[in-house]
Each structure stands twice: as structure tokens, then as C-alpha cells.
Amino acid sequence: xxxxxxxxxxxGATGPGFLSPTGVEIAFVLVGLATLGxxxxxxxxxxxxxxxxxxxxxxxxxxxxxxxxxxxxxxxxQVLIYLGSVVVLLLFGLMLTKAPIGRxxxxxxxxxxxxxxxAVVAAVSxxxxxxxxxxxxxxxxxGPVQGSTKxxxxxxxxxxxxxxxxxxxxxxxxxxxxxxxxxxxxxxxEADAAAPAGPGDKKGRR
Length: 206
Hints:
Helices cover about 75% and strands about 0% of the residues. The protein is mostly helical. The chain is globular.
């Protein structure tokens, strides 16, 4: 037996390897790189509208990654909730607040290096946790669909009920806090409202 045949037989005996990527794996890497590039442009551009549009590209790339992992249900949830709701909400917020269309010099807070350090630490921690948790796990793309509605619902409501409910309570608390902050008046406005009206104001009100 030739050495090439011996190596092929050994690879087949030990299972899949990184030296023989399939077309789906190559597409996954390419889409991941495009998504990462869109995310970097989102946080570095000084045009708010462009940042929102690049966010659409980044979230759409994540949905494509879910499709490549045969998680169709999660992919459509990504499209419906994030692309169809969150991004639209951001665009409406930009329009209602009359955000500038061009470059915004005040879009940089000056804490870029601190934010970059935090992002790098968070990314390294997330990659380490995922790699350590799924080190020996392989997804069989030719087997039964693992991201279907039935499988996702069983996993969510059997093993992740408590985190799911805790997240819903957290989102509700954030919504209540946003309402309270939006209704809070400025102290200067409260002082002006409490001040007695002058004669000129009385004439204007008649």
C-alpha cells in the first residue's frame, strides 16, 4: 500500500480532519470573514446611517452562518428579530432624532483603545469557552437536521428554561428603565416650569 493510501486510510479511521475541508466549511469561513469585516466597519465608521446599514450586513452574515450549520429555525429567527425589528428600530431612532446624514465628528468618545481592549478580551474569552466546550464535537451536515423548530424547542425548554426566563426579566427591567429615563425632566426645565409666569407670558397666553 502506498504512503498516500495509508494516510487516507488512517484519516478515514480517525474521523474528519481539518486538512480536507468541504465546500460548506470553506463557505462558512468566507462568510465569517465577511461578517467580521462588516462588524469592524460598523464600530469604526463615523457615519451613523452607514453604521446601521453595515450592522444589517453583519447580522445577515450571522444568519447565513446559521443556515450553513443546518440551523434553519435559528437563522430565520435572526432575520425576523434582528434584521426585521432591531435594525428597523435603530433606523427609526436615527430618523426621529434627526441624526446627521454625513460624517459625525462627535461619534468618537475618545475611549477607543479601552473599548478595543475590552472587545479583544471578550472575543478571546468567548472563543476559548466555545473551543473548550465543543473540542471533540462534530456536526454531521449529512445527518438529521439539528436546528429545526422541534429540536430547538426541546433543548430550549428542557435545559435552558431558567436562563431564558431570566433574560426575559432582564429585558423587561431594561425596558422599564428606558421609559423612566425618557420621562425624566431636566432640572433646568423643571425650574422654568416652576417659575411664576411674567406679564408678558400672560399676554401671550390670552
